[in-house]
Write a structure and sequence with these properties.
155 residues, mainly alpha, 79% helix, globular
Length: 155
């Protein structure tokens, strides 16, 4: 139930906001808004799974992964952001490119966090395992699951 709520209701709302943010006709404005948006989305999903009180180390690992995606966002949207410098036409073309990249990155991050929250909640609540949070929420696992969803977005 929680997994479905997060995947079908919460993440798509943040993806829509990310796409709208990416479409802002001001060059590079989207990057400064997307990181806090993705961190907020992550905390929202974790709250749904009852994981909002997890250790600061987990929040740091998730946040650092989100921030590392900022570099990817800037690189992916460099041409689109440069196009935004061209009055009128460039702003529309650049905005469309930035919007699609922002939506794809936010989508991959949202679904990755949903998956990781589900894995942890299942292990602890269903299997009754004494699993340290860091076993699931560490930068390597987060990036691995993120890439899986990012690759799905490319197809």
């Amino acid at each position: 139930q929680k997994r479905s709520t997060a995947r079908k209701s919460v993440v798509p709302k943040y993806v829509a906001v990310a796409a709208t943010t990416g479409a802002i006709p001001i060059p590079f404005a989207d990057a400064t808004i997307l990181v806090p948006l993705q961190v907020t989305m992550t905390m929202h999903v974790m709250r749904i799974f009852g994981l909002d009180r997890v250790s600061g180390a987990v929040k740091q690992a998730v946040s650092s992964t989100v921030v590392s995606q900022l570099g990817r966002l800037v690189a992916s949207t460099l041409t689109a952001n440069l196009a935004k410098l061209i009055p009128v036409a460039g702003q529309y073309v650049g905005g469309a490119g930035s919007a699609s990249v922002a939506a794809a990155l936010t989508s991959a991050m949202g679904y990755a966090v949903c998956e990781l929250c589900y894995r942890y909640a299942y292990a602890v609540m269903i299997e009754r395992r004494d699993l340290p949070v860091d076993d699931i929420f560490n930068p390597e696992t987060i990036m691995e699951v993120y890439r899986k969803f990012a690759d799905k977005n490319k197809k």
